[in-house]
Structure formats: structure tokens, C-alpha cells
Amino acid sequence: MTSKSTPESLNSPAPAAASDSSHPAAVDGEPVMLALHQTVLGGPEVLRLTEVPRPAPRPGQILVAVHAAGLNPTDFKHRAMSIFLPPPPRTLGWDVSGTVVETGFGVTLFQPGDEVFGMLPYPYGHGSHAEYVTGPARAFVAKPATIDHIHAAALPLAALTAWQALVDTADLRAGQRVLIHAAAGGVGHLAVQIAKDRGAHVTGTASAPKHDFLRELGADACVDYRSEDFTDTDTRYDVVLDTLGGDTATRSVSVLRPGGVLVSLLPGAQDTPAAAEKAQVRSVTLLVEHDRAGMRAIADLVDRGRLRAHVSGTFPLAEGARAHVQGETGRTTGKLVITVR
Hints:
Elements: E1 4-5, E2 26-27, E3 30-38, E4 48-53, E5 61-71, H1 73-80, E6 90-91, E7 95-103, E8 115-119, E9 132-136, E10 140-142, H2 149-153, H3 156-169, E11 177-180, H4 186-197, E12 201-206, H5 211-217, E13 221-224, E14 237-242, H6 247-253, E15 256-264, H7 272-279, E16 282-285, H8 292-303, E17 311-316, H9 320-327, E18 335-339
Parallel strand pairs: 11-12, 11-14, 12-13, 14-15, 15-16, 17-18
Antiparallel strand pairs: 1-4, 2-3, 3-4, 3-6, 5-7, 5-9, 5-18, 7-8, 8-10
Helix pairs in contact: 3-4, 6-7
């Protein structure tokens, strides 16, 4: 069936849970749900609370009733342009925390009623900004009982990115020094905590008003990017996590020791590879992947009290466009989360 926009505006109250009768459970016998949907590329105004077909789990998949879904910069970028995804129509969102409703053939890890969280396969497995979503069972793990769905939904994509950058790629070890750019942001504030749990010495760049926040997370040193040049130092780092790309990547090469590792989340400038080769450092660009082992490690950190997501704002599904507006300011500390149930 084709999707259709509901008459409510984006500033209307949040949609009720699926068990509520506020909207039809099925149309022409086909299950439906509400989703933050777009049919064209553009600004936040292209997002509409829309009635769409409810997915069914295929073999190896689970159907999850979404309680909350994290918002990430990649959502803003894909809303405005087709980076990895084909043109709309589409529903964005990769972070999800919720309850298993149904399992597809062959799934043995979960059963209906289990609380789970995870990251849908990036980039082609999007769709969590909706009442229901399907995904591979092994993209999910049990939600830690120590946190609620909102804080669980804030973790997967950003925490997996930090884990895969610092642990899987850079092999960060105790006693090493790491520099984390935009350390108060979504990936950055989780990377600080993961690095500290690894026993590293952590320096983070952020505006001065956010330095106390970083120190509370465990940062050993802070650099105010507005008034200080992070390259103006005799310190040499073993690892740099560059969340900004461009010229920042090239400049970060100069503060690495020979044999150090630069992990960028966005493409660096054209001269970054040559600068890295000259400085005898490794320079790589990371694209996050869904990862059950990584999610289990993240859940373990949460359960041990070593990792927490800072949620600076929540928005009901119907107000998802407002969440995009706030997120695109680039001034968010930690994460924004869309609430569904």
C-alpha cells in the first residue's frame, strides 16, 4: 500500500502506543504504523508523521516495538541529500531500543517480550524512527536493566563508532594518550568514557563551557577549540579520534607520534594521506558497522557503571522535525532521542 500523511501537524502530541486505538491497526487487512517519513529531500520540514505499512520479520530478523530511537548527524545528512541511500521515500533512524514483538524463522536469540537495543545495519538498514522496525536478530542485544529505553536508544550508533574506532581499529591500550575531537558530542562523550575504561590518558577538544562536563566523564585534559590551537603542544598522542574530518584530520597528523593512529569519521583533506605517510602514522576513515560483539561490550560497560549516554533532549515522534532543527545547530551536548512509547 502507499503511505499517506496524517492530518496532524508535526507539532501535535506524540502518537499513542501501538496498542492504543488512536489510529487504525490495519488498512484493507494490512498492518500499519506511524513513522517519521519523507518523500523528498530537504530541510526538517520534509519530515511528516505518516501512516505506512508495518514491516514483518523475514528469516533471521526480529520485529521490535520501538520505545525510543536515537538521533545522529547522519540522520540530518541523509534527510537533506542521498549520501549512501537511494532517493526517498524513506524513514530514517538506525538507533533503537524496544521490545521484541515477533521473531522470524530461524531466530534463537530472542523471543517476544524481550527488551533489546541495537543499531540497524548501517547504512541500508534504516527505519527506527517509527512505531515498529525490523532488523537482523544479531544486530541486537539485551537492553541493560540498569538504564531506561531513552538512554539505551542514545547509545548504539555513537557508542559502536567510538568502540570500533578506539578498540577495534586503534587497539587503544592502558597508558596510551588519545586526543578526541568534539569530545562533548554524541560520539565524543562516549569515546572519552571508553578510552578511560581502557586506561588511557584522554584529552578532549570542546568549547570552554563544556570542559567541566568532560572532566566529569573522566577527561584528563581539555582544549578550548575556540581560543586554543590543539597542535600548539609538545604532547604526542598514540591515537587521535577525528570526528570532524577535512583540515582537522591533516592537522591531527602533526600531534601523533610515529606509529600512531588517526581514525577519522569523515573524509580528511586531500593532503591527509601524504601528511600521514610523511609522519609515519596510520590514517584511516571509519564507517560504523552493526556488531553484536561490540554491542555486548557496550552493554557490559553500562552494567559496570563505566558508560552512560548524556541525553540533552527528547522529542516525541510527532515532533521529530524539531529534533532535527535542534540537532543541526551542532551545539548539542551528548545525544538527542526520539520517544515513541
